[in-house]
Amino acid sequence: MQLKNLPATMKKRIAFISEHASPLATLGGVDNGGQNVYVAELSKALALKGYKVDVFTRKDNSNLSDIVNWLPNVRVIHIKAGPEKFVEKEKLLCYMNAFTNNMLYFIQENNVHYDLMHANFFMSGLVASNIKKQTGIPYVITFHALGLVRLAHQKEMDKFPVERFDIERMIVKDANALIAECPQDKEDLINYYNADASKISIAPCGFNPAEFHVIDKKLARKKLSLSNDEIILLQLGRMVPRKGVDTVIRAVGRLTVKIKNIRLLIVGGESDEPDENITPEIGRLKKIAAEENVTAHVTFIGRRKRDVLKYFYAAADMFITTPWYEPFGITPLEAMACGTPVIGANVGGIKYSVKDGETGFLVPPKNHLALAQKIECLATNKNLIASMKHNALMRVNKYFTWVTVAVIVCNLYEQLLSKQINPKTRLILLPEFGFKNVETMMQNSLMPRLKTQYE
């Protein structure tokens, strides 16, 4: 069922909250990835559906304007919360009190009314929960990653404060609706957090066909100065251990005898040049490449802007992504949209977006031998690559465009808003409800305890 655009007189205003992932950020860094894309693309698609969207994100650079009129009906609001510089997301929880206070202050000072909030990540959910207490504005949340799932995979490498788990449990009960990005995400919400299944809607991530589409492989390789005589594997994304790039490198180490013209391109990092001092993970991966004797077959590209990524996807014979776990994973969609088969880890959203044996292959995570086998299978069968290219394009354009995702999300919004008591009876911030009063009214929230512990 498609949702028609809202009449101009009925435009509803949505507050997106994404404390660490701005839609304006350059992708590829440790904390800049799929959530940034999700917030950016979904807000754009919702604006085209007739909503007005304000994206609230933390001001992490003193040069940023407080309000950026980004696109028609989409603004980015930079909220002061902690130092105006980059802070790892694992250390941001103590600043959510300030984020909430200043977001409430913005709402009051600008006399703006939001029909609904859409929180992204657990810290944004905490902000939304406390704003709901003060204003009555309902909220939905897309977690993007769940703390207990992350802990199960990363163990002692997980650096988030333990309060995360209690906050997530609270949000699961308090939110008006939960958005799972794939069936596995829904199962995790139920199994790890005892979530009410009736509150969960599945809305996947998507891709923008205007941004990612088929490009002739030879033209793409010419654009990137790549050889037409090599079998090119592409790995693209954040440079962190859990992404499993080491598994791909070890797989290449098993293939160079059989496939001498194989090359692995690794795109991502904290800088345009692949500097291991700036991105330590690159240094670790270079050592693994040396151990596997494949240094000559592995090329680190560094960070690239989004308008160039389509050429990398199109130039590759196959895209590989083998994280330990993945709440969804947008890069497989982008690769398939460019007609490139995907070999992915059989986890989370990847096993939902990639159709095993049809649009690519699924392999166990951390299993370089299984991965090497599937790479060889594709690399030595041009007919199979052609078939998977066709299937990938059909699947991704049918199920995973942002327009399709926006229809699902819009329908959820409208269902929630239709159940709300007359919006005019909601508590809206009063003129005398100032910054200092926010502190007093929030004394019973989780945040004051956290502030002193982590600041």
Task: Using brief descriptors, characterize the structure shown.
single chain, 455 residues, alpha/beta, Rossmann fold, 2 domains, eight-stranded mixed sheet, six-stranded parallel sheet, 15% strand, disordered C terminus
- Assembly context of the chains: single chain
Write down the Rg: 22 Å
What is the count of β-strands? 14
- The shape is globular
Query: What is the CATH top level name of the largest domain?
Result: Alpha Beta
Distance between the termini: 48 Å
Spatial sequence of strands, sheet with the most strands: 3-4-2-1-5-6-7-8
Mean pLDDT: 89
Tell me roughly what share of residues is in helical segments. Answer: 40-55%
For this structure, the CATH topology of the largest domain is Rossmann fold
How many separate helices? 17
